[in-house]
Amino acid sequence: QVQLVESGGGLVQAGDSLRLSCTASGFTFSNYYMGWFRQAPGKERELVARISSGGGIRYANSVKGRFTISRDNAKNGLYLQMNSLKPEDTAVYYCNARNPNLNSMNYWGQGTQVTVSS
User: Fold this and answer.
1) Do 70 and 20 touch, CB atoms closer than 8 A?
2) Are the C-beta atoms of residues 48 and 59 closer than 8 Å to each other?
3) Which of 35, 75, 91, 93 could be stapled to 50 by a disulfide with Cβ–Cβ 3.0 to 4.6 Å?
4) What is the per-residue pLDDT across 36-48, written as a single tens digit (0 to 9) for each?
5) pLDDT tens digit string along 3-44?
6) Contact, 100 vs 47, CB < 8 A?
7) Burial zone of 39 (CB within 10 Å; 0-12 exposed, 13-18 middle, 19+ buried)
8) Rounded to the nearest 10 degrees, how much is the dihedral formed by the CA atoms of 111, 113, 114, 116?
């Protein structure tokens, strides 16, 4: 049974930092592309950052230079260090796992709320 469990969200002020974690189980973590997505009220879910099984990284333009994605294959862990947070970063953040060879194997966590006050 695949599980993705996010943690680390919360309420912070603009300029603060947060670190999100995602713990995965039920699949071969090291083989999967892992990503963080977010969805703000009334908006579509969008990619924040993604890290491939080989370590290649992609960021949304809105978070470049402020957010850092990383993974620890030994711990089945995915992380997102968020610095210099802005009110527009407020959203539910979701952990995603995707098998690059089988698009049908695409999994989501339950999400963690990040709220940034001005």
Assistant:
1) no
2) yes
3) 35
4) 999 999 999 999 9
5) 999 999 999 999 999 999 999 999 999 999 999 999 999 999
6) no
7) middle
8) 150
Taking the alpha carbons at both ends of the chain, their separation in whole angstroms is 40
Which pLDDT band holds residue 104 (cuts at 50, 70, 90)?
confident
Whether residue 103 has pLDDT greater than 90: no
Per residue, what are the HEC states of the chain? CCEEEEECCEEEECCCCEEEEEEEECCCHHHCEEEEEEECCCCCCEEEEEECCCCCEEECCCCCCCEEEEEECCCCEEEEEECCCCHHHCEEEEEEEEECCEEEEEEECCCEEEEEEC
Please say if the pLDDT value at position 77 is more than 90: yes
8 A C-beta contact, residue 6 and residue 22: yes
Residues 24 and 75: their CA atoms lie apart, in Å, by 9
Q: Which of 18, 20, 15, 19 is nearest to 84 (CA)?
A: 15
